[in-house]
Specification:
Elements (H helix, E strand, L loop, with lengths): L3 H12 L5 H13 L1 H41 L5 H6 L14 H24 L7 H8 L19 H10 L3 H8 L6 H13 L3 H12 L7 H14 L3 H12 L7 H11 L1
Helix pairs in contact: 1-3, 2-3, 3-5, 6-11, 7-8, 8-9, 9-10, 9-11, 10-11, 11-12, 12-13
């Protein structure tokens, strides 16, 4: 297998659309067979999304600073821009020479255009709203394993122990393979839904988590609701996600109440 740097380079090329069809097909085959390589791709994609959000925030901050400086500049003038343009007899540069009318007109026009450009971009991105999948990525943290106590270092692990060891290590494909060999129980389905979320298989995660969110006697029902909302976000079903998040935010004592309140504000 390629070394770590070569693997990362191939992942970068895939995400940036720089791979040829043959190379991309080969990489897809490797991803299907190598859970650690898939995890590397998922981590790289999350990092890329986080960088894009940060860059948008920096752009917005710069535009706000520019808008503020332009506003201060206009307020500091004792006369209006139109009067400044008309009063050519009184206009001089710092060296005492008279500024020609056409140059003063150009300066005023350039300043106005710059202000309009900054304001236009600012209003296009008024609140730097993240996409549903970006919000999913920013809020998803797999639920800790409370189902099985694993004695590490042993070779004779049961199928269930192997499933949850793979889950703890972030090898979600392997975890799903082992979980598929176990009896379908609410707890196993809950962690299968977690693994599907880790792989961004949102429809499959919804299938696993939806019944659990309706199960009043399931000990992890509240957690299932939170992760179901994240699955809907990842699947870009924002209305469904908001409905669940509103319920969580209004439920005193819910373990994800505060997170739901913050996430609702980010969506709206």
């Amino acid at each position: 297998m390629d070394n770590s740097n070569e693997r990362q380079q191939k992942i970068d090329d895939k995400l940036l659309g720089r791979l040829e069809a043959t190379a991309e097909s080969e990489l897809d085959r490797q991803l299907a067979e190598d859970a650690s390589l898939q995890a590397m791709l998922d981590d790289t994609e999350l990092a890329r999304q986080a960088i894009e959000v940060a860059e948008d925030q920096v752009l917005k901050a710069r535009l706000q600073e520019l808008e503020g400086s332009l506003a201060v500049g206009w307020k500091s003038r004792s006369t209006s821009p139109l009067r400044v343009i008309r009063d050519d007899a009184d206009q001089t540069e710092s060296n005492g020479q008279v500024v020609p009318f056409y140059r003063r007109h150009f300066y005023a026009l350039a300043a106005c255009l710059l202000f309009l450009l900054a304001a236009g971009i600012y209003f296009i991105l008024p609140n730097n709203v993240a996409s549903p999948q970006e919000l999913y990525a920013a809020n998803f943290e797999p639920y800790r394993n409370i189902a099985v106590d694993i004695t590490r270092g042993e070779d004779n692990l049961s199928v269930k122990e192997r499933a949850f060891l793979a889950y703890e290590q972030g090898n979600y494909r392997e975890a799903l393979t082992y979980l598929g060999q176990l009896e379908a129980t609410p707890v196993n389905d809950f962690y299968a839904g977690q693994a599907q979320l880790g792989l961004k298989k949102f429809p499959a995660a919804i299938d696993d988590l939806f019944p659990l969110a309706q199960m009043d006697d399931f000990p992890l029902q509240q957690q299932a609701n939170w992760y179901l909302a994240l699955a809907y976000l990842g699947n870009e079903a924002t209305a469904d996600a908001k409905q669940i998040l509103s319920t969580i935010a209004g439920e005193e004592g819910h373990p994800f109440q505060k997170q739901a309140e913050v996430l609702l504000e980010e969506i709206e």
